[in-house]
Amino acid sequence: AAGAGGGADADATGDGGEKPAKAARKEGAGAAATGGAAAAADKASVDLSAALLKQVDYYFSDSNVVRDRWMKAKINEDPDGWVDVAVLLTFNRVKELLAKGGAGDKDDAGKVKVIADALAPSKIVEVNDAGTRIKRVQAVPSAYNSKARTVYAKGFKEAATLDDLEPCFTRYGAVKRLGMRRYQGKFKRSVFVEFSTEEEAKKCVAELKSFDGDEMERVMMIGDYFAFKAEQRKAKRAAREKEAAAAGGAGGAGEGKDGEGG
User: What GO terms describe the biological role, i.e. biological process, of this protein (predicted)?
Assistant: First the structure.
């Protein structure tokens, strides 16, 4: 969620922010349809609850709160770390999940109840008795180092969504954070992925060669990626300096010739 939850949607993971005889036969068909609709509604409810639990757990996870300044500030607004569940209704990813799960037409109080009920089994956050506020079970960590467990990958379709990309990485292990990298709102076709273990991250680097019909352009540990970018910047700087020196030399030679000729 950007601004009001903006950073979280950009990094959303967990993945995942932001995100319906002839008479007897007619009666039987109607009953079957009703039963099918009820079953579908139950499944949608279960799917929505699981999706909301996963998403909100991500928002309040160590992996996100140490990076998301907006979320950390929101948690720090209350001495005990309580945050109104209604705040989550401003997150694009939560809006998307509620709409897909069939709860998009409920009023805010109804949506808050859906979210609070979904968070009941969470081990990351706890819900107050009124079902209107949540807070982290553990205090926000003062330090967090995920470098050895984080992968950089590039080569995805520009139109890819968080839901499209998640299966690419969950086959290698438990994904704690999947961040789609954007520039001016446009997906840069690259992601940062934090796994639960270093082994999972290394497995991804070793085995991820293609996804959705496209060959990956680059897959590496985040430390190697930063080193690669540093070398790129160094080479570009050197090229600019060489270009500037050549231009200056040419200018000086020209002035000398003019002087000699004049």
Answer: RNA processing
